[in-house]
Amino acid sequence: MSLPERAFPPGEGPAAKVSVSLRAGNIRAVKERVGTRGFSAYVDAAVERQIERDLLEEALQANEQENGPVPQRFRDEAEDLFRSVKSAPELQEVSEWHAHEAS
pTM of this prediction? Predict the structure, then answer.
């Protein structure tokens, strides 16, 4: 069994080389953000976030099957909170810093 197939939880285990195909525009965008040297770490972190989102979605679906749908007012509150966090000035500064460091 090769390293990527061992039972390491997401975000754990040694790094291993794999071959993936990405769209040219995504490759360019990642390199502009983090440069060539940070490319693998950026993609690895993105994969880990997607796994976390998938697990969260599965947990939400299981909860809804057991308890019924989440009330709309809670969905609206969560959406408002997400928007306010996403547009926070300190996050914009971090994004600008990353773009500057990559150039």
Answer: 0.66
